[in-house]
Amino acid sequence: MAGTRRRALLLLPVLLATGAAVGVGSAAHAAAVKVVSERWLGPRTVDLTVESPANNRSLPVRVIVPAGWSRDATRTWPVLYLLHGGNDDYTSWTRETDIERLSADAQVLIVMPEAGRDATYVDWFRPDGGPNAGLWETFHLTELWQVLRSGYRAGDARGVAGISSGGTGAMTYAGRHPGTFRAAAAYSAPLNLFDPLLRTVLLRTAADNGDDPNAMWGSPILQAANWRAHNPLDLAPNLKGTSVYLSSGSTGLPGDLDPNGFWSPVQFGEIPVGLSTSMMARRLSAAGIPVTLHKYFNGTHSWPYWQRELHTSWPQLMGALGVAVG
Fold it and tell me: In this structure, what CATH number is given to the domain that contains residue 15?
């Protein structure tokens, strides 16, 4: 699409007033969602501002379109969601990895939505629980999906991948919506919400961000059923038919991608993350679900490792979506 046409599109918000809802949430949410602005950052990368009725606010989403993409095309393209981790935002994947270059020859839409500083990927038990609370699952899987289908030529094939708590979200979304995602990948993700240390970290992150920790899934005691309904380890049997990739470190100690030697004791959190990753792989195998597991020994909870894992898992993700890779 020519640059002049892209600039013109900035003046024409995409109003999505028709079409069936896909995913969770109500049809009313999907019917009213609209794109209020587009800002092209380059030939293929665009930032959307999406008005979310479910959340009563506008939220940002970054999208990388494939070469040859056109809003007026007769064809559609598969979609890969990339989910960010805690204390970060929707810009992280393009800031920290080479996803734009990696996807240059792939006929796939890359979608990187905002999920708040807590990055919990859930419709909060109490949506008024703080500045990062919200109906994130509804926004991502109903409202945003309607935007992608109606305005950006998204096809039926979807995959999802994420780092840290974004990886938790990837496995949760795939497990809660069986058959929706053809591929799911989690890089250094807490995959057992009932692990005492992982649960403490997740709740502490919310508290540090000014949110009520018990507003996410509810009380882990009184609302234990809701926690289990969002726990990747409990949802593992639902991933039948999904191409799964899991990776993490084992020790949290500096590895081959930590050349500067920076390290702090918080990196020992990769140990319970790694244990939950192994537990998830065993649970999948016990259910007869194939899984690709890459456990590396040393290595910190950091982007150099997630960039490597993105590259390593890329052929598997693209293969599941039917996308050719060079």
Answer: 3.40.50.1820
